[in-house]
Amino acid sequence: MCGIIGYVGGRDVPSVLLGGLWRLEYRGYDSSGIAVISNSELVVRKVPGKLSELEELIKRKHVSGTIGIGHTRWATHGLPQENNTHPLVDCNEEIALVVNGIIENYLALKDELEAKGHIFRSLTDSEVIVHLIEENRSRGLAEAVKLAVKKLTGNFAFAVISINDRNKLVCARHDAPLICCYNSKEAAVASDISGVISIFDEVIYIPNDSIVVLQKGKCIITNFQGRTIKAPVHQVTIDVQDIDKGRFPHFMLKEIYEQPKVLHSIVSERIAGDGIRLGSELGISDAELKKVSRIVIQACGTSWHAGLIGKYIIEKFARIHTEVDISSEFRYRDAVFDSDTLVMAISQSGETADTIAGLREAKVKFLKALSLVNVLQSSIHRESDGIIEIMAGPEIGVASTKAYTAEIVNLHFLALYLGLLRGFVSRADLAEHLAALEELPGQVEQVIKLDSEIREIAKIFCNSRDFLFLGRGLNYATALEGALKLKEISYINATGYAAGEMKHGPIAMIDNKMPIVCVNPRTSVYEKMLNNIQEAVARKGIPISIVTRGDRRTRGISAYSVSIPECHECVSPVLSVIPLQLLAYHIATLKGLDVDRPRNLAKSVTVE
Ligand code: M6R
Question: From the candidates 2, 171, 219, 570, which is the catalytic residue?
């Protein structure tokens, strides 16, 4: 989960590489570097630490040239220190390489290469690639790359330049994302479109298991066996502004504030007259959907939380037995399926390694796979039988916010669609739900207006050491998500729990210093949740409750509360999570933390 970029052309190469790296930084940010061929010499600039430090270094020690590569790293093998920072070079410092991925057989390859006299300078798994290329450098860069990839196991996307082939950018991908662009004057490669968005308006999603040789006006794609492949050219549909912070101090806050707009577009797109439109890429017929007897949702992190809500609503509306698995568990658990099982991956990025592996597990077993995915043309998009587009727009903040609420709303539409097909949802039920969904964007806007009120609560608790988050029913997932948001950006120990389970253990943690976020909008489990809050109060815990406007009972027993509008139970997880996103955001910023670049994390987890 690193960001890679390469460029050949007439612009100032270091500026192009740096510009791209800033936009790819969300993929990893513990060290960064560039390599440029300058007057037949390979010049490398790299630093551990933030990208701003690389920028400073390049200002101090400028380099010019017409071809270069760049990298922003999320360390897997080897600490974020200079020798492990990419670009990595061969023994003679003639070839430079940037990689995203993991080379699983690197130890064996390293032994082999060291026995042949290669000198390794880093502890990375990736360095073997540059030495493998060096081994065959006399055959030309493209051929050397072709021979190198044959020896690699794992997943990778890389770009390489060489002073002996100085007009060519050679790249390869196997199970890690990579795109390229070219025109008569210039060409580029990057982990995703954001790296090159300001330069090109057309993009090629490099097919899996292929090698690309890029030059000005030329792009030759071959598979690993050397056969030429044609890949379609797509129009770039995202705009620089979509991936810009605009007036906001952080992407996370911008994305929280974008939720009314995002949800409005989803609702407008999905409601078709008095029916539901799930999009043109569903890939599974109504007849096939009618036959589905079981759904297995598999996802990670925030997307897994959305899946938990999906289970509740799919079972409720469509009466289909639904399981939700964490992808890293699902892929190894040898689950029992029957031929009418539908597997659903949920993923914002579409590149999460464990979720892709779970999807492949389903395909090996000949199961139909319908995925919810935000990034179009991502691996999960391409490998699923069909998709429902999440439609959240580009999400850059490492802490997922708008993708989560967009996932929930799409699952709501899917559940209703299946319910209608199977005859469990009547036209009157549907009308009631569609009305609730249509009202939702406006209600989310009202909750966002409570931002400053929530910041005041954040001020009181920003120095707390631990937090407990409790919820029930649909809002059990809200409690998990609230806790995840807080811990990932503020590093506060936060535990999310099903409130009814509290007395089976976590209640022991409660004392008069423990803030307990209690998610209790008016739902079918309202009274039960109220009892759980009472139990926490009796142990001197400090309840901060999310309540429905006008709910005096929960307010009455809570130390602090935030009121959300009256809503249908099924949309309550969307409205309840917004105050928790804002609470986490404000606590982290009050602590002076970098919410868009939380430590140890990266936006897409493309390694196992
Ligand atoms: O791109 P995905 O939805 O597959 O990502 C899954 C998780 O890595 C992601 O949700 C992660 O938990 C976020 N940092 C949560 O904010």
Answer: 2
